Amino acid sequence: MVHRSASTPSVVAVTGGYVVPVASEPLDGGTVLIEDGRIVAVGLDVAVPDGAHVVDATGRWVLPGFVESHGHVGIWEEGEGVAGDDVNEMTGPDMAAVRAVDAVNIDDEGFRDALAGGVTSVVVKPGSGNPIGGQTVAIKSWGGRTIDEQVLSASVSVKSALGENPKRVYREKGQTPSTRLGTAKIIREAFVRAQHYAAARAAAVTKGEPFARDLGLETLVRVLDGELAWDQHCHRHDDIATAIRLADEFGYRLVVNHGTEGHKIADVLAERGIPVIYGPMLTNRSKVELRDRGIEHLATLAAAGVRVAITTDHPVVPVNFLVHQATFAVKEGLPRATALEALTVNPAAILGLDERVGSLRPGLDGDVVIWSGDPLDVHARVEHVLIEGVSVYAWDDAAQAGRVVERRERFAG
């Protein structure tokens, strides 16, 4: 939970706006009522309790905070060079034991940018230099004294990579994997070890015997048990096919990340119910895997019935441009409703966060963003951001700049 200071109002009402819950129909002149950080009511005739802090959103659009489902905010810091680059532990191809939460700097400027772009939750992932990159973490974009007070879910997924990146990294080191064959081998062998580990651990428990823990194998067992998703970095259609093959072999929950050529096998992904976190879209063709990249392919995936989310892969594309990618995708054929879902309910559902974020409905966190107009209009801007009912960002018309409520202000005294 985001830490709530003593001065934080316990009841907040966002009133009078064009409320777009995303998971239900819009409400013109609606109210979102938040108590102790959670939404308790959304509607046209919501009674606002005496003493509630009222935020007037008349003439504005009110939406849930966006969810960036694949970012490196805080572990690949901007403007910090090597000192702020903790995105890849490339000293071995299997890094299942490492955790992104241990390297996130919540003062990274990217988090302030996230607020300016209406992004209130970020799934921070290790990079794609290793076949197995490590554990991801879902956090709120702002509000804690430490990262632990911003954690939304510490049990989200494990990042893995196929394709060019790991073969390039380890070919330069003169070790396995130097090919796609070798990358699949590393992943397959790791899961076989995890299966043996799980059996040996269960036997030791039954016998009441001590058992030596292995942090990496324990993580992979959680993937096999379905507790953690398998976030598979893959661009080319053949790498996506390999990802599916491996998931079938070991029975884990696959999420395709990037999916640049996913449109070529969109029917396969749809039939298998495999979601795609698509993007980043505002990039050049910087490597062979991206030669067939195109914004219009997201519409093809969605039309085939694939559940899609959109990613900036921050800082590859700045996190505050998440909504602009959605706008460009609409221009290239993605339905507007699907675009908003790809920023909110879909990423939340794909990564198991939908009991906390992704929509405006009772029971979810009070992560509310007030926009000057339709967020898919490039002229619209974020005017006010609340995370769990706490005001963390506001646009200052006079200064023509956004203002983040810094932690030193929230927790002074």
Automatic annotation (TrEMBL):
Gene3D superfamilies, A to Z: Metal-dependent hydrolases (3.20.20.140), Urease, subunit C, domain 1 (2.30.40.10)
Q: Does the keyword Oxidoreductase apply?
A: no
Instruction: List the Gene Ontology MF annotations in alphabetical order.
Output: hydrolase activity, acting on carbon-nitrogen (but not peptide) bonds
Lineage, uppermost ranks: Bacteria, Bacillati, Actinomycetota, Actinomycetes, Micrococcales
Please provide the record's keywords in A-Z order: Hydrolase
The molecule here is called Imidazolonepropionase-like amidohydrolase
Stretches assigned to the Amidohydrolase domain: 152-393
Extract the InterPro entries matched here: Amidohydro_3, Metal-dep_hydrolase_composite, Metal_Hydrolase, Metallo-dep_Hydrolase
Ubl conjugation as UniProt keyword = no
